[in-house]
Write a structure and sequence with these properties.
The complex is a heterotrimer. Chain A is mainly alpha-helical. Helix content of chain A is 78%, strand content 0%. Chain A has a single domain, classed as MetI-like (MetI-like fold, Orthogonal Bundle). In chain A, helix 10 packs parallel to helix 11 and helix 11 runs antiparallel to helix 12. Chain B has one domain: MetI-like fold (Orthogonal Bundle), CATH 1.10.3720. In chain B, helix 2 runs antiparallel to helix 11. By secondary structure, chain C is of the alpha/beta class. In chain C, 32% of the residues lie in helices and 25% in strands. In chain C, helix 3 packs across helix 4. The longest helix of chain C has 16 residues. The radius of gyration of chain C is 20 Å and the shape is globular. About 2% of the residues of chain C have low confidence. Classes of the chains: A mainly alpha, B mainly alpha, C alpha/beta. Chains in contact: A-B, A-C. At the A-B interface, helix 1, helix 2, helix 6, helix 7 and helix 8 of A face helix 4, helix 5, helix 9, helix 10 and helix 11 of B.
Amino acid sequence: MISKQMLKFIGRRLIFLLITYIVATTIVFILPRVIPGNPLNQILSRLSQVAQANPEQIRAAEKTLMEQFAFDKPWYVQYFDFLGNALKGDLGTSVSYYPRKVLDLVIPVLPWTLLLLLPATIVAWFLGNSLGALAAYRRNSWIDKGVLTTSLIVSQIPYYWLGMIFIFFFGVKLGILPVGGAYSQGSFPNWSWSFVLDVLKHYILPFASIVVSAMGGWAIGMRLMVIYELGNDYVRFSEALGMNDKRIYKYVFRNSLLPQITGLALSLGGALGGALITEIIFNYPGTGFLLFRALTSLDYPLIQGIFVILIASIYLANFIVDFIYAVIDPRIRLGQEE
Amino acid sequence: MFKNMFKPLFKSKKFIIGLSIVLFFILLGIFGPMIYRVDPTEMTWDMEQAPSSTHPLGTDTYGRDILAQLLYGIRSSLYVGFLAALISLVIGTIVGTFSAVRRGITDDLLMSFTNIVLTTPSILIAILIASYLDVRSIEMIAVILGLFQWPWFARAIRAQLMSVLSREYVYLSKMAGYGDFRLIVEDLIPTIATYAFMSFVLFINGGIMGEASLSLIGLGPTEGISLGTILQWSVMMDAIRRGLWWWFVPPGIAIVAVTASLLIISTAMDEVFNPILREE
Amino acid sequence: MSESLVKIENIRAYYKLKNREVKAVDNVSFEIMENEIIGVVGESGCGKSTLSNVLLNNIIKPLTIVGGRVLFKSNGEYVEISSLTREEVRERFWGKEMSLIPQSAMNALMPTIKLSKYVEHLAQSHGIPKNELLKKARKRFEDVDLDPQWLNRYPFELSGGMRQRAVIAIATLLNPQLLIADEPTSALDVVNQKVFLKILLEMKRQGIVKSIIFVTHDIATIRQIADRMLVMYAGKIMEISPVDKIVEKPLNPYTEGLLNSVLTPEPEIKKRGITTIPGTPPNLIEPPSGCRFHPRCPKAMSVCKEKEPKLVEIEPQRKVACFLYSEERA
């Protein structure tokens, strides 16, 4: 089933993403080193201000940072150590949660972020694309105008602000849904029905805020895509052959959806950014929340680690989307001569 | 030339509505603080007051006037947006133009670079950069945001230029011995002006939204007030769960109103200038 | 002489825009006979593509039929298709009675499914058993000189010329009486054009289609394939005659100009688009008074500016709209 052309496509994408990943981690590596001033001292002085912690902890932090950033070694040694460690999965030790490893801190929170981001993004993608296609089919009808106007506005609502409004309205005013967290305080994650139900209840608002505000953008894009597609010759030809409308719409939908799959891959980064902040608003115990804690306590090893992992996840997701795209679109699967 | 070009725009209802709202907010940002002369940083004993005649949009935990904050916030958020958009536009134009005009290896290198930036999750990198900066001015925020949103514009400019470049008149001007630069200025820029304007408008959105995101994660400008920082304070003080709606609702509305109007402007332009979307 | 398959009577089809009308087809009458290939020729913007939409009754606003009617012979009776809605005609006629080969047949095939799948969908739409139509498709592919194996491929796997042939094969699957070819050869190279025309002729010879209306700006292709030629200018018919007679002696000065511009021997001159007709076609919002060709006509007379010439039969089977051949000549 996997043809040579497809392998070529997949291989090319893989190499590209790998290069991009190396560039991104290089940025992560370079940044603390190019910021003017001695960053280590700066970090430590800020740390002592922020932490007001006991000297022991500061000393521990100092030691960790020295190891982590190893400014005394030549830059290329530092660089390859960094890359090597990152590939091995050794992201160093957290300062604020000393002596816990960064990876051990990130792994438990990652599922919460994925649980929130992936279903919400996919649902928004489907709903948005369906609405956009519907609007385009009924071009200039009230449905079209309604969908377009609403989408233009809704697509510009930041996830987190919609989250705030939802919390205020459904949580505070109506009091029907929890105002934050992933589950009720005092309960511990387990597989009982009551806990799952509790998680679902906490899930609704952050999920809905991402879905609603992400949907608009997809609807706008899909509407345009379908309008362009409807002007294509195969539509006219199919019509003239007496193909029924439903089938033609299916064709158009299918062909318009293909570029939207690529769009999905490209939008994941932004969606992740939005989801991270949404987590902060909802006190949702995901990566965003951890990142926020790391940022406020200037835990640079943890911040770096989170980024290395998040960027890797995004590229992985990108790759999966590319793969799906290649499977669905025969022009890629079989290699279109151009 | 431009006068005639933009004339049909003013027949579009969408364009007029979008433009009016944006102009309203621009005027509000420029003149608002001059007319409503309340110090947004002045703390008073009227703490967490709901809107009243003395404080039309209420006050925050320190008794600071929200309307005053909002007016300053609109000003700096628009400023961030414009500045970031300008930076993105300049980078995108340079990269796209060079790619299209020079072709060959320059093109290959620039486009690989563009694709890498395009695939890089820009908001994450922006967060990372901001986290290393002790002091963040509004301009620095704009630069951080502007550095990452140009790739798709560069690609589009390149594609447009390539199609224009293949047309005859460019060939003719090359024959006439014009250099690359003169070619760019005289022949090509006008053809992409509309497109650049539409993109500029969307870049402003990126800047405004990006600023708000950075602020909410605690990495916004360390001086001055923006719409993002107002939201951040309200989150820090748990205004949402305590029902202080006048604190976090207005800045959000301002963000959505400005960015949605800008998007509407760009959509309207697309509908007017793009033959496939034209309604007639 | 056989009967007519389609009768077009005084059709006026305008594009109704906000505050103006484009008179793309203005008071046009002619007939398409059974078993004939009729070529419609004219410069771009003369209304010939609108004419093919009128024949299909593919009327989507702003295009509006302002007057006249189109009669289509179906089961021995003439149906006034211009009085039906687009959807009704589509339901009853498209694919079965009349079919279209669109302008760029290269892109006319649904790109992301296999051709066989497309044929199956077509069968479903028409309530025909899938296998039956697939069998027919295989046969038809052979007719157009394509290996039926190509049915199991995606359109992009076929070369341009092959795609073109696949389009003809699919367009004629249901044996439509009338095949409307709307500038189908414009994107093809000379060799593929020849093959394409040969296949069309073969389709007619085998009786797969009864009649073909071939719309083009290229008079040379019409000479190769058509029985009669219909010359359009600015939404009007200028002349309609058997091809050999028109080539031998064009009546209307416009036809003459058109023929001269194409029959110029040097291909370079042809390529550079130098024609012997000076000027450009008029806009159809406010067409010239009288004969619409008079501003460009080398033989224009004073009457041409004032009165509109009628399309009259001046020899058997030859109709022309020109005062040079009319009694009103003064």
